[in-house]
Amino acid sequence: MTFNRRSLRTLLLVTSTAGLFLSGCATTADAAGTGAQAATISQAEARQGAEAHPQLLQEFGGAMTGPQAQYVEQVGKNIAVQSSLSNARDAFTVSLLNSSVNNAFAIPGGYIYTTRQLVGLMNNEAELAGVLGHEVGHVAARHAQRRQSAATKNSLLGALGSILAGAVLGNSQIGQAISSGIQQGSQLLTLKFSRSQEVEADGLGIQYLRSAGYDPHAMATVLQSLAMQNALDASLQGRSNATVPEWASTHPDPASRVQGALRLAGNATGVTNRDTFLSRIDGLVYGDDPAQGVIEGSQFIHPGYRLAFTAPGGFYMVNGTQAVSIQGQSGQGQLTTASYNGNLENYVRQAFASLSQNQQIAPQELQRTTVNGIPAMYGTARVNTGNGQVDVVVFAYEFSNSQAFHFVTISQAGRSSVFSPMFNSMRRISANEAAQVIPRVIDVVTVGPRDTIQSLAARMAYTDAQEQRFRVLNGLSSGQTLQVGQKVKLVVRGR
Question: Which of 316, 379, 467, 489 is the most buried if burial means most Cβ atoms within 10 Å?
Answer without folding.
Answer: 489
